[in-house]
Design goal:
Blueprint: H1 19-40, H2 51-63, E1 68-72, H3 78-86, E2 91-96, H4 101-113, E3 118-122, H5 125-131, E4 141-146, H6 152-163, E5 166-175, H7 185-196, E6 200-207, E7 210-212, E8 222-228
Parallel strand pairs: 1-2, 1-4, 2-3, 4-5
Antiparallel strand pairs: 5-8, 6-7, 6-8
Helix pairs in contact: 1-2, 1-3, 1-4, 2-3, 5-6, 6-7
The structure holds S-adenosylmethionine.
Amino acid sequence: MDMSMPSAGFKSALFPDSGISDRSRIQSLMEDMFRHAQEHGSVLDDGISCLSQVLYLMYLARARKASSIAEIGFNIGYSSIAFLESSPQAKVTSFEINTEASVKAAKEFIDSRYPDRHHLIYGDSTQTVPAFQVPRSTDGFDLIFIDGGHDYSCVKADITNARRLAKPGATLVVDDLTPWFKWGIGPATAWEEAVRDEVVTPLEYMSDALAVSRIQGPAERAWAVGQYW
Ligand SMILES: C[S@@+](CC[C@H](N)C(=O)[O-])C[C@H]1O[C@@H](n2cnc3c(N)ncnc32)[C@H](O)[C@@H]1O
């Protein structure tokens, strides 16, 4: 697979001056959220973002001035925290198939901390995203984060279907471009096809919290930022 970086002129969201105080604040928020979800729910049955990714997503949303944000894959809401912390104006819509107690507890935590700024839509994203009506007050989402089902067909559908909800030129982030792991094959293949088919222009590749010109193993985590055509 070729996941190399053709584009220039993109300013990475990494490492702004304020990074150190953000780090401890976001870490303690994530810990609070984790405790809350554990106290109210069962064990996690899917992956969650790590601190460096949450910080990255927060800075990215801020750098891209994204106030209307969608994510596919909420789990216990770490990426939602990233986006809601990016600016007091940011509003987030999450699509999530899992209705277990841990997810509901995380939603409760988010609502108590960020009232009226988060909307959670339960169901399979391959159905809920195409059925979603963009509110009349906006002309679509500024930023879309795809981190739901990791099967190729699901990621492919999510990238395609989310485009209809995106503002022209919206930012797209696809997580887990790690084809050396089983769960990374679907996202990596779907991303590569989206680039090949000119659905998205790559802006930045991240591997273990470093900007890289090409994604290649081994790395624990890797994700891509792009712009919808
Ligand atoms: C990796 S987790 C998301 C992590 C989260 N974004 C974070 O930052 O911590 C993936 C989530 O996608 C959800 N999911 C899986 N398939 C889905 C589907 N078809 N539609 C909606 N959500 C799905 C899972 O239930 C799980 O909560």
